[in-house]
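Supplementary Methods S3. Input chains for the assembly prediction are listed below.
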Amino acid sequence: MFSGFMMSAWIVASIVAVVAGVVGFFVVVRGSAFAAHALPQSAFTGAAAASLIGISAVYGMGAFALASALGIAWLGKRGRHDVVTALILVMLLGLGELFLSYSVEYAQAIYSLLFGEVLGVSTNEILPTALLAVAAILAVAVMYRPLMLTSILPEVGESRGVRAYRMEVLFLVILALATTASVPVVGALLMFSLMVGPPAASRCFTDNPPIAIALSVALALLTVWASLAIAYERNLPVGFLVGTISAAIYIVGRVWAAWRQRRVGRRRPLGARVDSDLVGAAGT
Amino acid sequence: MGPAEAHRDVVALDGIGVWLSGREILHEVSFSIRPGQFTGLIGSNGAGKTTILRVILGLQEPTTGQVLIDGKPRLRRNRSVGYVPQKVVIDPDLPLRARDVVGLGLDGYRFGLPMPSLPRRRRIDEMLEAVDAMGFADSRMGNLSGGEQQRVLIAHALIGQPELLLLDEPLANLDIASGHEIVELLRRIAAEHHVAVLLSAHDMNPLLPVMDRVVYVAAGRAASGTVDEVVRSEVLAELYGHPVAVLRVEGRILVVAGSHADTEVLGSAPHSVERT
Amino acid sequence: MIDLAANIVFEPGFFSNSPVQSALVAGGAVALMAGVVGVFTVVRGQSFAGHSFADMDTTGGSAAFLLGIGALWGFLAVSVAAAAAMELLGVERRRGRDVTTGVVLGAALGLAALFLYWDTTASSTTGAATTILFGSLFTISPSTVPAIVGFSVAALAAVLVLYRPLLFSSLSADMARARGVPVRLVSAVFMFLMALAVALSAITVGAILSTALLIGPAATALRLTKRPGAAMWAAAGIGLVGVWLGILFAYDSSAWPGHHGWPVSFSVVAVIFVFYLAADLLTSVRAKWDRLRQDRLAKGE
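Predicted structure tokens for the full assembly:
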């Protein structure tokens, strides 16, 4: 399982898991579920366009993901998205179909772009993936504090000079980088699972942000490693395993959180005046 | 107030006018806040209070006039004003504790990762103590009640050592008793940390014991001064543009503005501004 | 003269071509129905649910293919089951909806990956993925056309019968309840109708693109008019014209020099999208015009 070509698969998959865990944390914090769906789908079209022109898929994916990131930010500023952006997305997918229809390996290409094809990863894909991943992670590290501030208290951030719109653009660009790295591995349709499942699960286990990120990465790695191992042993598609294992981890997390809550006691309802701390401390 | 003294003002608004979507929201609003002053920004909803706050925070560009913070024109990144928004929506699923929110107030606008250190933790603990929030410092922000969240937000704003603490309708979602607690807390903080306070409200009565000055806003116009100077029929009538009656009943102030068809009453009961 | 013009627009053999005929009939019926159901979907803000059905249909279609049943029945079965599940679980709450449903859908898509993989290894045909995901109006077997038309007509009839209660409960649940409309029941029924619409759209343009038929014409119609009744008519019409034009372009394109022909699903989606852009452009120009006039009037005071 660890010989030759599988080694490349392990390395690339691990890199993707790390970046998914880190960037995914913010996807969940910011509630960017829509972007997390939209960017991989446009990457699909980008890869299809690239294969049509005959250049490496990475450039196509990167270009389309980046363009979509900026597009979503701009459309978001203008107001409600849902319907318009859903339409644009579907159009992009249709274009992807068009581009791929020109290629010989039509069906196979569709499958691997949508559901991932990590076992076919070659060594010369390690470097671009690693570069994209490192760029995304570095950007998150540098922007961690303002990103947290604008995600949680956007208006306060604005008053401190952290402009919400710029941060949104920056974040979407980071997501585009992460997408371009991840889509060849887990596929356009399943990237969401890897990027949202582990972080969403991790916050069921801890209240502490940095620990939540670390746990998110750990769970993503667990998902990816388990998927690769089982895929290899049982001859199953990796995409299927990533989708189901992420879901399983998320469910475990929610069950744990629900159980913990019942043990600790009911949450205090919002607006309740009851504050044992204050009663004693008042007037000091 | 001469020019030399003006430089000591924490905030000074001079002839602020704001036009939005073809409507004049604010007209020639001028007032200033001195260090340590506790000022109430009073007016009914839609009078222009929020716009004034936004102008001070730099979230709204004034069409005319200028804002001076510490005697200098307002910069984008301004540390002198600590902002406590009215309401924040924080998902209970968010892995973020109260102390993390306060920590963001310390350095949330700087790049990089927060480096945990003892001094940092101690600063955060101090602030949490100051707002009586140590009891839930490690709880998830999203799980806290509205009042608890508000105290955390005050600590968040305070930890940056601002010269002015600006609160947007802090009493709006609280019952009377909680409202008194917050007002008392703010008074204490203002005194202990030497920080000026500006808070907006539509009922000035809970603030009467602690307000040094009031800025009364109506129909986009404002009058500032002490309560006795400002809350008078003549002064308010000029703001409203029609007759105003000021009634003092059992230590409470009621402002009744308008003619028979359209009457507005401020201060009749918490949270209610009746229009008949 | 007319012959010449007709020949330019319609490549020879268009109307006599059997797959084209099936496509026009089936596609037309579905377009009408999806347009009408789509208007309510958009008004009720349930586009997300439509998207969910589409993803699950992918799983259902792949499973059906594996079992040797026609894709249509896979789509229908899964759609209906999903609708039932969503109604029972009450997936209307905003919070948690994005993450939970997204992850669950991810698992469903993972299953689809598995089924499609087995499809390609079990049978020697490689077309499973393409047929399920992107569909093809031209490869619908003539024997399924009656079923497709039948379901579409039934769904349309249901919408017409339920028009008033559906309209009231979509615009304001409280107002509807006050008038005695069984809001919960109507919501459940509508969920099934949406599931049906998505399944039928999936068989025409593929599961992945099915939301275009559901939301595209409806969104276009709602840009042009705010009145639900008019919007329904407009959406049905736009959908119909869109699908037919798409079929026409796809057929013609195979005769163009140098082209190997556009996939019909892409063709249909492209036409619908262009219609939307046109409507959007029209309304923004009109809105800007109105605003300029208003500003001029205001300044004149």
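Residues 268-284 of chain A have pLDDT under 50 and may be disordered. The interface with chain B takes residues 29, 31, 141-146, 148-149, 152-153, 155-162, 200, 202-203, 206-212, 267-273, 275-278, 281-282 of chain A (CB under 8 Å).
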